Amino acid sequence: MNQLRTMMKRLLMLTLGTAIGFAALGFGDAGQADALSKSTADKLVNYADNYLGTPYKFGASTSTTRYFDCSSFTKHVFKHIGYNLPRTAKEQAKVGRFVSKSNLKKGDLVFFRVPSRGNIIGHVGIYVGNGKMIHTYGAGGVKFSSINTTYWKNHYATARRLGD
Q1: Are 57 and 69 in contact (CB under 8 A)?
Q2: Which residues pair with 10 in a beta bridge?
Q3: What are the beta bridge partners of residue 121?
């Protein structure tokens, strides 16, 4: 009986080790989150660019483009390419697939914690490449910002990828 138990433990460890090894090599589910195609990501960002300077208003209605909050902006822009995102950043952070910060691609959603709201996910932007996102927050409304500035870097939470 002890010999069978030892053999089962070894088999389990071998199986677990193999699964971890394949995942680390990119054969696991987390490594295969397909990004938007280049043309779709370009279309998304080019459409988002049309709203540069549009004022920020917390709690903005999704039925207007006169002003946006962060999640109404991403919801509106992604709708243009056929995705119906949830209303809030917190809910948007549950769609698509996780992608690590080091593997961000144009069109990925990037999420940030907001300390004034209990340190929960409360901000979202669209990654545009070269360490930048397009988003809306505060003065200036819709704008490009580096995700590597002190504030955004310190409050980065996660990223999600939607695929074609």
Answers
A1: yes
A2: none
A3: 113
- Interval 135-160 mean pLDDT: 97
- In this prediction, residue 1 has a pLDDT band, given cuts at 50, 70 and 90, of low
- What is the value of pTM for the model shown? 0.80
Reduce the DSSP state of residue 27 to 3 states and report it. Answer: coil
State the DSSP code for 68. Answer: B
Q: In what order do the strands lie in the sheet with 156-161?
A: 97-98, 156-161, 109-114, 120-129, 132-136, 142-146
Which 8-state DSSP code applies to residue 48?
H
Of the candidates 76, 80, 123, 155, the residue annotated as catalytic is: 123
What token pair was written down for 37?
A: 């195609």
Give me the residues paired with residue 113 across strands.
Answer: 121
CA distance 131 to 93: 19
- Contact between 159 and 95 (Cβ < 8 Å): no
Say whether 135 is catalytic.
yes
Cα angle 127, 133, 139 (rounded to 5 degrees) comes to 150
Name the one residue in this structure whose structure tokens are 């209990």.
118
Q: Are 99 and 111 in contact (CB under 8 A)?
A: no
Contact assessment for residue 110 and residue 126, using Cβ atoms and an 8 Å cutoff: yes
User: Which residues pair with residue 123 across a beta bridge?
Assistant: 112
Distance of CA 42 to the CA centre of its chain: 17
